[in-house]
Amino acid sequence: MRLRPFFSGGGLDRADHLRTDPAAIGRLCADSGALELVWENGAPAIDAMGRLCWQPVSGSPPLLLGLNDHHPRLCALPEDNGPIDARTHIQLLTLLAAEDSPTFAAALSLAQWHGRHRFCSNCGQSTEPNRCGWSRACTGCGAEHYPRVDPVVIMIAEHDGRLLLGRQPSYPPGRFSALAGFVEPGESLEAAVARELQEEAGIAVGEVRYLTSQPWPFPSSLMVGAWASAQSDSLTIDTNELDDARWFSRAEVVQALSGDPDAPFLPPPAAAIARTLLEAWVDGLM
């Protein structure tokens, strides 16, 4: 089984072997096919066709995103690289073409990471981009800091042919989606799935299966999709986390995914891995 969530795929050749070779990077910047990513309002700019916008290289951008047919794709770090609000990122995902989504995710996550790590967590001195933007080096103690992603489990629990979905207070009216939560230190993915379902919905689960994953650059998560077998359908909802949680039949999920205005719930948007999980469940890929 191979699922293809939004933001997945190879994207650019990341050319790790070039990141510690300043001479090679200098030659890449002078390459006639070199292009630099355009930024707009703190995010990679997207044209009317949903593709990323590129321009001729200006100076020596600190971030090498990778190679496209052996030609470099570089990136300056925008001044406005703080977190993007939920409404803005939904608008961006509505516009963005799937083939450019891996590059978009890498550029946005890295830019926001640089914005949050201007100072060393070891000694407090300032840091500078290093390794073509894939790390930062402290100007004081010399410590090197690398970008990290935050693993998040996102899961659909099934019981007797029905699927458990929940809604958070921030969702638009009627929307239900897969439950999710951050993986905690010292915890396996399977344990995180079981814990989150117990904490948020009060259900115990047996078998847990990994399904697929998706980068989520708001700001820098890795969504790990899973299926779990619930041992009962009795719910105890944590109202601090969820407004509601319900079991839905396959027919109801099909109705929602089809866009039927009379469907019992509004499904997650196409770019969300939760949508991929629902579609896979309906197609019997579990």
From TrEMBL:
Its EC number is 3.6.1.22. It catalyses: a 5'-end NAD(+)-phospho-ribonucleoside in mRNA + H2O = a 5'-end phospho-adenosine-phospho-ribonucleoside in mRNA + beta-nicotinamide D-ribonucleotide + 2 H(+). CDD domains: NUDIX_NADH_pyrophosphatase_Nudt13. The keyword Nucleus does not apply. GO terms for cellular component: cytosol. Residues 147-271 form the Nudix hydrolase domain. PROSITE patterns: NUDIX, NUDIX_BOX. InterPro entries: NAD-cap_RNA_hydrolase_NudC, NudC-like_C, NUDIX_hydrolase-like_dom_sf, NUDIX_hydrolase_CS, NUDIX_hydrolase_dom, Znr_NADH_PPase. Keywords: Hydrolase, Magnesium, Metal-binding, NAD. This is NAD(+) diphosphatase. The gene is nudC.
